[in-house]
Each structure stands twice: as structure tokens, then as C-alpha cells.
Amino acid sequence: MMSELFNKEEFLKGLIRRLHEEPDKLENIREDFMRVVRELTPVEIAQVEQKLVEEGMPPESIQLMCNIHLDVFKEALDEDSIDVGSWHPLHILIEEHRDILNRTKELRDLTGKIISGNYDGEDIRRLQSSMQYLDREEAYFSKEENVLFPYLERHGLVQPPAIMWKEHDEVRNLRKKMKIEYENLKNGDPNKVNELAITISELFTNHIYKEHKILFPSALKLLSNNEWESIRVEFDEIGYFSFEPMPFVSSEEVSKNNGVEGLVNLGSGFLKVDQLLLMLNSLPFDITFVDENDTVRYFSEGKERIFVRTRAIIGRKVQNCHPQKSAHVVNRILEDFKNGVRDVAEFWLNLGPKIVHIRYFALRDTLGKYAGTLEVTQEISSIKALEGEKRIYDPLD
């Protein structure tokens, strides 16, 4: 067993050395890294990384390996099949997970800078903020330990929550140690602070991976929608530390009132009417909705409209909103949509320097029955002119 662990540690050390010596082979190193990283605990990974620092490996190379681990895991998160509404407790925990991963990465980066000696007062302030963030994570632990886990235990799922709780306690213990090392930073060894930051980050990464791949899918199979709604109510009572989720309204209230006073039920969330209007009128294109009887029911009112429309068209037949010479085209599109011949029709026009892209989409209900048409009109000359890539945000002068 010890020889196996030694071989894995030596393999990991070799990967980090390759990362330092062969930066052009990053993708191959990523693949090799992910093969071994699941078989080592976060503490073991941190110990290997610390040994390499002591042997003279630049902290930047260690940091890059940690970032590879985190990046690969984030890619896995994006591919997860946990598809729940924004009100759902699992959606909330997943969003908190994303925030935790980003903040623990920042914690590692900051302690890495302190090791290198290339830091300033602002870095110290951010490090203090990151330490305080670790304390606020108790709200996340509490929601799982005091709400989600008891519900799962009622359904006979006992051991996985127990393991997750144990890992919460490991983070708490590491957090206490890090506070002590941070307070003694001026007189102590900054490497210890960095080692603890790496260990916390790696522990969270593996912990979150197990929750997404094992605990959460199991919970979705076991718990009823009524139980999830009860869990959400209890989540709200405990509170949130990284973001405020959408207001929650139970299905009972929705069915009773067909919504909630002041809010529009959109299925994946609830918006105030003024929020909905701001969103629709800020779209970078124009939209028009025509119902199943060919009657115009709505159009967006953005600041830069492509074609003139007035509110007088609301309630008119869409055929009467087009020139007579093009009415037959409108009728053909609608007929094809209603008969299920097609779901999309599109055109594009050159209007001086503008290129206007017009698309019509057939709308169908859950049974596939035709429910209307959505027209989307967009000026695309600036989009068509794009070349290459832009990955940097340019602040305004």
C-alpha cells in the first residue's frame, strides 16, 4: 500500500516537473494528471506540492497544476445533467459550489503571491477577505447538515451524507489551523499558509465532485417535489452567503393564485412586471408574438428599433401588418407552421449599410400543438464583421 502511494506521489511530482519544463504539452499533462488525482487525498497532493517547493520548484508551477485540477473539474460541472429550476435547493447548492471554487482559487493565488514575496497591501486586504469568506461558508455547511442530510437519511441514504459531513469538519479544522498560521504570518512560515490554502482548495474540489456525481443524483431520485419545496423553505430560514436565489413560491400557492401578487411565474423563475419589461426591451433584437389565430399580441420596444411599429397593431391580424404584395408569403409561413411542415423560416436584407436578419419560429405547446409565431429581427452587420477572438474586457476610458 505504501509503495502504491509512493508511486502515485512520484508520478504527480513528475507531472508537476513536466509542467515546469514542458509548458507546450499542457493538454497531455492535464490528461495524465486527472488519471492519478482522484486516487490521492487533498492532503497527500498538498504534501507532494510542498516537497517540490522545498526542493526548489517555483511556486508558479505548483499553482498552475492546482489551476489545471480546478479547470478540469469546472468543465465537468458544466457538463453535469442536474437540470432543476432556479428555485430548487440543488440549484442553490450548485451555485454556492461554483462560488466556493472561485474563492478558494483566489485564496491559493494570494498565498502563492505571499510565498513569492511579490505582494502589496491590497493583496493582504483580499487575503483577509478570503479568510472571512471561509467563515461565511458555515451557511452552506448548515443547509446540508441540518436540512438536506436528514431528509436523505429518512429515505435510508445514511453513509454518503455522513462522509460529506466528515469532510465539512475537515475543512473546519483546516480553517482553524489557517487562521492561526495567518495570525503568525509575520513571524511564521508563509509556506504553511499556502500549504493549508492548497489543501482546503483540493479538499473542496474533491468534495464538490462527489456531491455532484453521487449525492445530488441520488437525492433527485429519492426526494419528492413536496420534500424539495420543504427543504427550500428551510434553506431560506438558514440563509445564503454568496448570492440571493430567486424568491420561492410553493406549487400550492401557484396553483391557488395562478402566480403571486406582483410576480409573473415564468416556470424557471418569478419576475416583477417591470423587471420583465426591462429584460425584453433590452434585448439586442426585436421580437413580436403572433398568437395561434394570427393576431399580434406583443412586440418589444427597444431603444433602437429596426422597423417602425406602433401599439395600434396590437389586436390586428398579422397579414394586415404587411404590404399586400408580401401577404401571400406571410400566409405560406403560417400555414407551414400550423401544418407542421417546418418550425423556422428566415430572410436577410441589405438596407444601406445595415444587414437585417429576420427569423420566424413556430411555437408549440407540450403536446406539439401550434400556439403561435415568434418573429425575431436583428441588425447583424457588426456581428458579420467579427473576426478572430476577443477574450479581454476593455474598460471605458
Give the gist of this structure.
Helix content is 58%, strand content 11%. It has 397 residues and is of the alpha+beta class.
Tell me what the structure shows.
The protein is of the alpha+beta class and 397 residues long. The protein is 58% helix and 11% strand. The chain has helices at residues 2-21, 26-37, 42-54, 59-78, 89-116, 121-136, 138-154, 159-183, 190-222, 225-238, 251-257, 273-281, 327-338, 381-384, and strands at 263-265, 270-272, 286-291, 296-299, 344-351, 354-364, 370-379. The relative contact order is 0.08.
Beta-strand share of residues: 5-15%
Instruction: Tally the helices.
Output: 14
Helix content: 55-70%
**Backbone structural class:** alpha+beta
Cα separation of the termini: 60 Å
List keywords for this structure.
two-stranded antiparallel sheet, 397 residues, extended, alpha+beta, 7 strands, 5-stranded antiparallel β-sheet, single chain
SSE order and pairing:
Elements: H1 2-21, H2 26-37, H3 42-54, H4 59-78, H5 89-116, H6 121-136, H7 138-154, H8 159-183, H9 190-222, H10 225-238, H11 251-257, E1 263-265, E2 270-272, H12 273-281, E3 286-291, E4 296-299, H13 327-338, E5 344-351, E6 354-364, E7 370-379, H14 381-384
Antiparallel strand pairs: 1-2, 3-4, 3-7, 5-6, 6-7
